[in-house]
UniProtKB/TrEMBL annotation:
The keyword Transmembrane helix is annotated on this UniProt entry: yes
The species this protein was found in: Folsomia candida (Springtail)
Parts of the chain that traverse the membrane: 7-27, 84-104, 111-130, 136-157, 169-191, 203-220, 281-300, 320-344, 365-387, 393-414, 426-445, 457-478
Alphabetical keyword list: Membrane, Transmembrane, Transmembrane helix
Protein name in the entry: Large neutral amino acids transporter small subunit 4
């Protein structure tokens, strides 16, 4: 592939990762805007009216400035409604992932991108039309945005195939940008403070999403081909030169076949059933590890309610969101280190002569970042045990790092541990599983904030669940297991 085409494809994926793919995870800032706009405030007014006064049943009227120009009306019923909406958004974001994965493989990249982009455009139009008088419009709007942004996320990963040798680093850059895309809703908050309405910012974002429709016709119709470097003896061969080299002279210990070499010396063309990836110990442990993804999402679900328990000042809540934005700006410069480490481990594995050991070493390459993601997620939830502003700040710093690391390590792990041709479907299936489990977020949210005692028990339970995720990187460090997995994969390739 020509260099300019690689740059264009990777640039498109990065732009979309930065603007739309992780936008729903900026939910706390958008909730703040919704509260300022009076969305679902009628629940609080109804409760206050039924009680005959404004400060019963948890209803609060908080000034956002000394001039009393803006007032936030909040109450438990409103908080619960926002919690329910976000729980369903997360489900809509992830459950159709398997469908999106199969769509990419069979309907093609362009169809998937155009469909997802159209959903996001429609979603922002619905949100822009929502007011205190018709708050229900945020429901179809946010659900369409959730579905569409997930489709764009999985589609943008295809762009990383344009540069196979740097794919892990590209994935970490994409997921850092994906995490930074939560700043979009923080921009909504700043725009609202500057007097720009929710309607105006929503319509601007629908126009930005329209750019994805144009770029869909720049990218290939079906997929960005994954063309790794091949080896000819001890010399690497660039993918751009593959067509000029006879297949019978090319060793098949490529990144795509992961060390397998057929007896004839020709590149094997064996169709591997998806079940061979799914029915493995590694895939089972991988789904346990996905608890980290689930818990980073639940952090967003519960953040606003937790933050309000540390302060009664709406300006402090706004500052929490601003501080989160600052951390997200810094994190893209830190998080690619994980990709560089994985790429380094993969290249070191390529130097091994024994094909089984070479493939086993590649399986072990993502173990470090998987462990790091679990450790950081555990640290976040230890912070959440406390109602302290300092704990909030520390958790914001940690979550801004762990979210992109956990997502990127998921992608690199699936790419390296399983058959590459299963990547789209396995990624989709994994996200579908964790999103179905994510339907528990709303009852989990209610349990967490039911009482002080339930808060502690729930927090300890979450920490225990995260501890279980260390089993996934742990089993990769057992050399006898990875060699067994490698030998089996090489046999299946023949």
């Amino acid at each position: 592939m020509h260099l300019w085409k690689r740059i264009v494809f990777i640039g498109i994926g990065f732009f979309e990762s930065l603007t739309v793919t992780g936008i729903i995870f900026g939910w706390p800032a958008l909730v703040h805007v919704f509260q300022l706009e009076g969305i679902f405030s009628h629940f609080c007014l109804e409760d206050a009216k039924s009680q005959g006064e404004y400060n019963t049943n948890g209803t609060e009227f908080a000034n956002t400035s000394d001039t009393n120009s803006s007032i936030i009306i909040r109450c438990p019923r409103q908080d619960n409604m926002f919690g329910l909406l976000y729980s369903l958004m997360i489900a809509m974001y992830g459950i159709p992932s398997a469908l999106v994965g199969f769509s990419l493989d069979y309907a093609g990249l362009r169809f998937t991108r155009v469909t997802s982009g159209a959903m996001m455009i429609g979603g922002f139009i619905w949100v822009g039309l929502a007011t205190a008088a018709n708050p229900w419009m945020v429901w179809p709007g946010m659900l369409l945005i959730s579905f569409g942004s997930n489709g764009m996320r999985l589609s943008s990963l295809q762009c990383g195939n344009a540069w196979p040798a740097k794919r892990s680093t590209i994935m970490f850059c994409y997921t850092s940008a994906h995490a930074a895309s939560t700043l979009v809703f923080l921009m909504f908050q700043y725009a609202n403070a500057a007097g720009i309405s929710l309607r105006s910012t929503s319509f601007v974002m629908s126009a930005v999403c329209g750019i994805t429709l144009i770029s869909s016709f720049i990218l290939p119709k079906m997929k960005v081909e994954y063309q790794p470097k091949l080896s000819l003896g001890n010399n690497e061969v660039n993918d751009a030169d593959n067509n000029s080299i006879p297949l019978n002279k090319i060793n098949t210990d490529t990144e795509e076949s992961k060390g397998n070499q057929s007896p004839s010396g020709k590149e094997p063309d064996v169709k591997i059933p998806l079940g061979l990836s799914i029915k493995t110990m590694s895939f089972v442990f991988h789904n346990v590890w996905l608890v980290n993804i689930y818990m980073t999402r639940f952090y967003v679900t519960s953040f606003n309610t937790w933050a309000w328990k540390t302060t009664d000042d709406p300006n402090q809540i706004a500052f929490y969101n601003s501080f989160s934005g600052i951390c997200l700006i810094i994190s893209p410069f830190i998080n690619p280190i994980g990709g560089l480490i994985t790429d380094f481990m993969t290249k070191r594995a390529d130097k091994k002569n024994d094909p089984i050991e070479r493939l086993a070493a590649k399986f072990r390459a993502p173990a470090f970042v998987l462990t790091l993601a679990s450790a950081l997620t555990l640290a976040v939830y230890i912070c959440k045990i406390s109602y302290s502003p300092n704990a909030v700040y520390v958790s914001i710093v940690l979550i801004s790092i762990v979210r992109p690391i956990s997502i990127a390590s998921l992608y690199s792990y699936v790419q390296l541990r399983f058959y590459p041709e299963h990547f789209n479907r396995l990624t989709g299936i994994s996200y579908t599983i964790i999103s179905i489990v994510g339907l528990l977020q709303y009852p989990q949210y209610l349990w967490l904030f039911k009482s002080e005692e339930s808060y502690l028990w729930a927090s300890y339970t979450f920490c225990f669940m995260i501890l279980l995720t260390f089993i996934s990187p742990g089993h990769l460090l057992v050399t006898s297991l990875t060699r067994k997995f490698a030998a089996k994969e090489i046999r299946n390739r023949k």
